[in-house]
Structures are given as C-alpha cells and as structure tokens.
Design goal:
The complex is a heterodimer of chains A (135) and B (496).
Chain A: H1 3-20, H2 25-45, H3 66-97, H4 106-116, H5 126-129
Helix pairs in contact in A: 1-2, 2-3
Chain B: H1 7-21, H2 26-51, E1 56-59, E2 70-73, H3 75-101, H4 112-128, H5 132-150, H6 156-187, H7 192-200, H8 204-222, H9 230-234, H10 240-265, H11 272-292, H12 296-317, H13 320-351, H14 362-365, H15 367-381, H16 387-402, H17 405-434, H18 450-468, H19 470-486, H20 488-494
Classes of the chains: A mainly alpha (135), B mainly alpha (496).
C-alpha cells in the first residue's frame, strides 16, 4: 500500500471536511465530491496492487484484488447521482431565494427567541383558558 | 422455499419500474403500488413463519457464498420486514386517500409512487442483507428515495430542510463507505458471517476503530445524540405521509444495523458504557427538546429522537433480556410513531395548522380524531396496559437485572423520560383538544377522506395488537435475542 495514496486520501478528507462546514451549498457540494473521492481512494488502497485481474493476461498470484474496484464503481455511480441531486437543490434554492446559503430553521429561531424573552412556548397559558368539560 | 427471500426487495423495485412507466395513469399506478406492498407483506409473513426453523439464506446470482452477496432472512430480519411492510402499506393507503381528498386525481405527482416503492426496496434490502457492502447499497437506495420524498414539490421550506437532511446523510454514507474500506483492508471480506471469525482474530485497537466507524455512520442515521440535531430540523416540513414513514422506518433501519453489527460483528460489549451514556443523553436531551416545542410535528420529531435512546439502552446492556426488550420496543415504536405522525397530518387538515397556539377544541369538533390521537399518545408515553409500557418494563427489568450503577442511572432516566413524554403529549392534548377553540378563524378545514382515517385507525389497531399479542411476541423476541448473542445459528446458516 503506497503512502502517497494514503496522503492523498488525507488531503481529500481534510479539504472536503472544511468545505462541508460552509454555509453556501455550492461549496458544500464541492466538499461532498472531495469526501466521496477520498473514500473511493481509501477503498482502492485496501486492495493489493498488482497486474490487471484478467484471466490469461496475468498469473492469479500477481493479480490485484478486483473486488474493491467493483465496489468503487458502485460508489462512484452513487456519488454521481447524489452530486446531481445536490446541484439541483442548489439551483432550486437559487431560483427561490436568489442565493444558495442554507438558512436557519424558522421554528428553531422562534423557540430560541421565546426562551430569550423567558416565556414558555405556549403563547396562551393553560390556566387562563382551560374550559370546563362539555356538558 | 428460499426463492421467497429476494422477493421483498425485487417486487418493490419492479413495481417502481412499472409505476414509472404508467406515469400518465394514476389509477394504474395506485393499483400497482398497493398490490406490490400487499404482496410484500404476505411474503414477509410467510418468511417469518419459515425463519422459525432457522435462517433462510440465498446466494444472489448463484455465486459461491463468501465471494458473492448473500441475503439472510433470520427471525430478526423477518420480524422487521413484517412490521415495516405493514406500516408502509398503511401509509401508502393514507397518501392515496390524501391525494383523493385534495382532488388532485388529475395531476398527482407522478414521481411519488415509484419513489415510495424504491424507498421500500431499500429498507427491505437493508434488513435482508448479509453483506456489509450490500447493506451500504440498501442504505443508499432508501436514502436516495428519501431525498426526493423530503423535497417533494420543491417549496422553499422543504428545500431548506431537505438540504440539511441530504448533506448530513451524505456525510454518514461517506463514513460508512470509509469504514467498509477499512474493514475490507483488515479482513479481506465483507460477508458478515465470515467477518465474525476474521474480526475476532484482529488486534483489539483495530477492531475498536472499525467498530467506531460503523457506530458513527449508523448513529447519524439512527439519530443518536449528539448526532441527532438534523432530524427535528428536517422531518416536520415534508408531507404528512412522508414524515410518518420516515419517522417509523428510516431511523429504525439505523437501529437495526446497530443491533446487527454490535451483536454479530463486535460482541463482548467493549463500547457498552459509551452506548449507555449516549442512550441516556439521547433520551433526556430529546425529550427536553420535545417539551420546549410549540408545533405538534416538531414535538413528535423530538420524541422520536428521545425514544431511540430506549432502543440503544437495550443494545448497550447486551444481555438477552436487554436485546429482547430492545427488539420488542423497536417494533412497537415503528408502528406508534408512524401513527402519531399520520394523526398530526389529520390534525393539520382539520385545524389548518399543527402549531399548538392556533389549535383548540378538537375534542368537541373532531371526536374521532381525538380517539385516534389519544390511544397512540398514551401508548408512546408508556401507560399500562399498552405495549409502550410493556417495552419499557422489559428494558427497566433488564437494566435492573444488569445491576451496575450506570444501568440503574439508565433505569431512572427511562422513567423520567417516560413521564416527560406523557407531559409533552398531555400538553398537546390540553391545548389542541380540550381548550376552547382558538379565536383565530381557521381557514376552511380540508376534508380528510375516509381512506385516510381508516388507514390511520388500522395502524392504531395494529399498535393495540402489540399489547394483546405481547406474550407470544416477547417469547419470539427472546429467541431472537438468544440467537443474536449465540451468533452461531447465523454463521452456520450462511457458511455451512
């Protein structure tokens, strides 16, 4: 297993993580792509390097393990689909709001403001308007 | 009879293809979806009966076992299959009823039925998978479908909520994939039965890293504190049936994956203390969040997080009694939480909102709705004789049987959480159902079709059935727990 491959994985993961913490969806998207490729390289590093795994071209003992490559192929397809979906989300967000920054949840903000004003989350207190059971 | 095993995955996938082709014919779409899910339910029930004689194993594509992918239908997987397919069927009927009531017979979203069926296929694939990579694929199938469902319609709030959900889920998928890569590097296999012995042979430190990676990935999906903040943020804005099926199933797939990997791959309870602490904080933080909310859907999302803590408590105990109660509680919670979200959907249509300060007097104006809410609410809070009480009782007994200081702390935490759940739900009841109707004029309530009410009622009844059948069901989960701890039945079935 080569050290350079693992270093590349480390760099991809680090850069991806930084980008993922951004508020702008486009940067998050770039972060997801870097992270996905980092994971793919990591899976690739799991396999023993060697000759192409084609019967007749190389001796079985010298072949690389084809299974991680098959898994990476699956993972690449999945990452591609997810990237396309995120891109569509970013575009939709831009269409609706004119930017692609992820906003705070409105309800979260409301609960927080209520807490700051030291009020309960029930706008009307219970005692005030509990009714008698219907007769 | 092993040819039945792939059907719960294959049928919804084929159904999804068929409904996609029929996108111009909503009536045909509905007929296909309902019959496919009904057939899945029947097949799952048959599999549950067959699995009593030992796990059914299918090597997909006829590849020799450790090299190819296997599907394993043991009792745990089939129990989850039966409950999940019953729930998905009821929610599908509810959403069909909602489509009918809204009069969008002419222009329904043609993408809804195919996506819903793919979601089902992902869930069943995750339950049946005997291979870690196939489990990953199962997760991706259900997540990809859930991304579409949670942003259905593409309104501003749904896009905002969906973005959080998608990004967090993608992160957990990357961690899972990296974990798979590391496990393959360390052991050279991803077949779970083969992993059992190969993981046991690894040095302790390496095993701990692998276990930590998987726990982290599944912990995000199962919404365990401190990895749970995304859930109450993203679930409430989706359409009612979508939120309901997500709440019932998606987090439970994460819990199922935790139960499976913690018992089969990493037994011995090395991280038991960590799991217990996470369980306690999930319960307490979740329920305190619920108490602070003033919107029914958000409140229910927080109770969902909180009750994941109970399931984790049972897993952390790692004893037969603990696992048995955890499986029982998982099954109960799938049904009850889904029901409550469906009822919240009905409340929203009747009262025009799910905000507690805008609702009132529903007990008088909508008595049927009141009954439909009260029964699952009491069930969730754990009032005897409902199954929520029986599940919590089993967990508390298991915790007391364990006897360590931490498990007594957890026992106390479960009791407090249960009381606070009752408080949170009683607040909903007082404000939405018993108070005088709000002075704010409610916009004309949307009509709820009979199908919506009937399918919700069916789930309420299903929740009651857990109480009636608690004895036999506990006997069943007890053998499930024994098999999980023994590990050998699973391994011998896959690698004879």
């Amino acid at each position: 297993m080569s050290v350079s491959l693992l270093l590349a994985v480390g760099v991809l993961f680090a850069a991806g993580t930084v980008l993922l913490l951004e508020r702008t969806l486009t940067r998050v998207l770039l972060g997801v792509m870097l992270l996905g490729n980092g994971a793919n390289l990591l899976v690739l590093a799991a396999a023993r390097p060697g000759a192409p795994p084609i019967v007749g071209v190389a001796e079985p003992a010298e072949m690389t393990d084809p299974l991680p490559q098959a898994m990476i192929l699956t993972a690449i397809v999945i990452t591609l689909g997810m990237t396309a979906f995120l891109l569509a989300l970013a575009y939709r967000s831009w269409l609706l709001t004119g930017h692609d920054e992820v906003q705070d949840d409105a309800e979260d903000r409301r609960v927080r403001e209520l807490a700051e004003r030291d009020e309960g989350s029930d706008a009307e207190d219970l005692d005030a308007d509990v009714v008698e059971a219907p007769r | 009879m092993t040819w039945l095993v792939p059907l719960p995955v294959v049928m919804p996938l084929l159904g999804a293809a068929a409904t996609l082709l029929m996108f111009r014919r909503p009536r045909v779409q509905r007929a296909i979806s309902v019959s496919v899910l009904a057939a899945t339910l029947v097949v799952s029930a048959v599999l549950l009966v067959l699995a009593a004689d030992g796990p059914l194993v299918v090597a997909v594509g006829g590849w020799p076992v450790p090299a190819g992918i296997v599907l394993v239908a043991d009792q745990l997987a089939t129990l989850m299959l039966v409950v999940s397919s019953a729930v998905t069927l009821c929610v599908l009927l509810y959403s069909i009823g909602q489509g009918g009531a809204d009069g969008d017979e002419e222009h329904p979203l043609s993408v809804y039925h195919p996506t819903y069926l793919i979601l089902t296929a992902g869930v069943t694939n995750a339950f049946l998978s005997g291979d870690l990579f196939n489990l990953y694929v199962g997760f991706e199938i259900l997540l990809a479908a859930s991304y579409v469902l949670i942003t259905l319609g593409g309104t501003e709030t749904r896009i905002r909520a969906g973005t959080t959900y998608v990004v967090v889920s993608l992160l957990s998928s990357v961690i899972f994939l990296a974990g798979i890569g590391l496990i393959y590097a360390a052991t050279g296999t991803l077949n779970m039965a083969q992993l059992v012995e190969r993981l046991d042979a690894l040095p302790d430190g390496v095993r701990l890293v692998l276990q930590g990676m998987l726990l982290l990935a599944f912990g995000i999906k199962a919404a365990i504190f401190p990895l749970s903040a995304w859930l109450p943020d993203s679930y409430p804005t989706a359409p009612a049936p979508v939120t309901a099926v997500f709440a019932g199933l998606l987090t439970k797939v994460g819990v199922y994956a935790i139960i499976r990997t913690e018992t089969l791959l990493f037994p011995g309870g090395r991280v038991a203390d960590l799991l217990m602490v996470a369980a306690l904080s999930t319960m307490v933080v979740g329920i305190l969040g619920a108490v602070a909310q003033s919107d029914i859907k958000r409140l229910l999302s927080f109770t969902l997080v909180s009750h994941i803590g109970y399931l984790l408590f049972g897993v952390g105990l790692a004893s037969r009694a603990g696992l048995s109660a955890a499986v029982f509680y998982t099954l109960h919670h799938i049904v009850v939480q889904t029901t409550l979200f469906l009822v919240a959907g009905l409340i929203e249509r009747r009262g025009g909102s799910t905000a507690l300060d805008r609702l009132g007097g529903l007990a008088r104006t909508a008595p049927v709705l009141a009954v439909l809410f009260l029964l699952p609410a009491l069930n969730l809070a754990g009032i005897p004789p409902f199954s929520g009480f029986l599940g919590k009782l089993g967990l508390i007994q298991a915790g007391a049987g364990d006897g360590s200081a931490l498990s007594w702390l957890l026992v106390g935490g479960s009791a407090v959480t249960s009381l606070l759940t009752l408080y949170a739900l009683a607040r909903v009841w007082n404000l939405a159902f018993w108070r005088t109707p709000a002075t704010v004029a409610v916009a004309a309530p949307l009509r709820s079709s009979r199908l919506m009410v009937t399918s919700t009622a069916a789930l309420v009844v299903a929740g009651m059935l857990f109480t009636v059948a608690a004895g036999p069901l506990y006997a069943l989960t007890d053998t499930v727990a024994a098999d999980l701890l023994a590990r050998s039945p699973y391994v011998r079935a896959v690698l004879p």
